[in-house]
């Protein structure tokens, strides 16, 4: 009977409300601030020896528009939204299912337990969705490589990219960069821990439900906190995901889809980090942080705002109190 009760807590409409709300909010927010993520990826992958000091976000945006057109700022948006939708569905559903099982009506939420549950949800999410994000990186960076003939042919969209990657690089290619990704589960875990903590404290202090501005503010603070702490791992992850095995190209294809400077497939994340430190110093680990902070903080803040409002609205439509849905 207890097992049946726990099972009913997992497979209930509230978890699906959180999942759909999170996926919808994430897609809307990503679309709004996507050019900033394009800039972040460019700055993370460019060669500092050739580009010199890191440029500002505005400088890179102007450069992309002048050289490639405004459409280049939105390169790969479709696959990103597809992957983000899947990823947010998995993460939000798993996180809230775990919360439903872990907390009973008598237990008070705790930051440490939220961090633990967020980490478990993050691990499940990484293992389930890593191939989508590997292909995303390659789709978006295909015109950044020395030539783009091979990339443009096989990394046109999410499905063709997944099929080509599986055929040429196998399981290892599909899950490249998974080790730093697993370490990076600390990012959403820290973000959700801080978000839930701030939401509880603000609600307790004011005695009222948060406004849209309140959700936006605590979402921004939570994401900034998590991003700064985990940024070096995100940089390494991007470099690993973008690496391409030239020898895996079909024999009738030109082997011109080259790796970006200083990238070697066999490098571990530790070797990549040491290489960055050796050649570019400690600041090299934070190259592109400005664009990343702008993009992730604004995107997360808007996502949480939309997520909370959709969840509350659906709760009302289903004759449930918003507070019960957002619990």
Helix and strand layout, with pairings?
Blueprint: H1 2-10, H2 13-45, H3 48-51, H4 57-68, H5 77-102, H6 111-141, H7 149-154, H8 158-174, H9 178-183, H10 186-206, H11 212-242, H12 269-280, H13 289-317, H14 322-325
Helix pairs in contact: 1-5, 2-5, 2-13, 5-6, 6-8, 6-10, 10-11, 11-13
Compact overview of the structure:
With 327 residues, this protein is mainly α. It has helices at residues 2-10, 13-45, 48-51, 57-68, 77-102, 111-141, 149-154, 158-174, 178-183, 186-206, 212-242, 269-280, 289-317, 322-325.
Your description of this structure?
This protein is mainly α and 327 residues long. The chain has one domain (2-325): Mitochondrial carrier fold (Alpha/alpha barrel), CATH 1.50.40. It has helices at residues 2-10, 13-45, 48-51, 57-68, 77-102, 111-141, 149-154, 158-174, 178-183, 186-206, 212-242, 269-280, 289-317, 322-325. Helix 2 (13-45) runs antiparallel to helix 13 and helix 6 (111-141) packs across helix 10 (186-206). The protein is globular and about 55 Å long. Residues 144-148, 244-266 and 321-327 have low confidence and may be disordered.
Low-confidence stretches: 144-148, 244-266, 321-327
The level 1 CATH classification is Mainly Alpha
The residue fraction in helices comes out at over 70%
Question: What is the CATH superfamily classification?
Answer: Mitochondrial carrier domain
Secondary-structure-based class equals mainly alpha
Number of continuous helical runs: 14
Which overall shape is indicated by the principal axes computed on the Cα atoms?
globular
The proportion of residues in beta strands is: under 5%
Q: Sketch the topology as an H/E string, one letter per element.
A: HHHHHHHHHHHHHH
According to DSSP, the number of beta strands is: 0
As a whole number of angstroms, the C-alpha radius of gyration is 21 Å
How would a textbook summarize the main sheet? Answer: none
Number of domains: 1
Q: Using the 3D structure, state the CATH architecture.
A: Alpha/alpha barrel
Q: Tell me, rounded to a whole number, the average pLDDT.
A: 76
CATH topology: Mitochondrial carrier fold
N-end to C-end Cα span: 24 Å
């Amino acid at each position: 009977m207890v097992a049946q009760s726990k099972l009913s807590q997992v497979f209930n409409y509230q978890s699906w409300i959180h999942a759909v709300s999170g996926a919808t909010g994430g897609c809307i927010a990503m679309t709004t601030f996507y050019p900033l993520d394009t800039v972040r990826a460019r700055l993370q992958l460019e060669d500092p020896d050739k580009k010199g000091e890191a440029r500002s976000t505005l400088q890179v945006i102007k450069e992309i528009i002048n050289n490639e057109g405004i459409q280049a700022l939105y390169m790969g948006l479709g696959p990103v939204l597809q992957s983000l939708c899947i990823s947010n569905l998995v993460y939000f559903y798993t996180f809230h299912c775990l919360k439903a099982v872990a907390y009973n009506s008598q237990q008070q939420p705790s930051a440490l337990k939220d961090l633990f549950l967020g980490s478990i949800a993050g691990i499940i999410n990484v293992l389930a969705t890593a191939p989508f994000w590997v292909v995303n990186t390659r789709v978006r960076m295909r015109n950044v490589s020395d030539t783009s003939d091979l990339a443009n042919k096989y990394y046109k969209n999410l499905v063709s990219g997944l099929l080509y990657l599986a055929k040429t690089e196998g399981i290892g290619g599909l899950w490249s960069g998974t080790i730093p990704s697993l370490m990076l589960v600390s990012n959403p875990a820290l973000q959700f821990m801080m978000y839930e903590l701030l939401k509880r404290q603000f609600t307790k202090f004011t005695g009222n439900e948060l406004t849209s501005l309140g959700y936006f503010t605590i979402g921004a603070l939570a994401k900034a906190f998590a991003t700064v702490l985990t940024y070096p791992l995100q940089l390494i992850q991007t470099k690993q995901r973008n690496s391409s095995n030239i020898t895996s190209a079909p024999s009738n294809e030109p082997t011109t889809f080259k790796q970006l400077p200083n990238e070697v497939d066999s490098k571990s994340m530790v070797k990549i980090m040491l290489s960055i430190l050796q050649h570019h110093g400690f600041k090299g680990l934070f190259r592109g942080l400005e664009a990343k902070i702008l993009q992730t903080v604004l995107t997360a803040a808007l996502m949480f705002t939309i997520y909370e409002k959709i969840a509350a609205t659906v709760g009302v439509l289903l004759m449930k109190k918003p507070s019960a849905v957002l619990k």
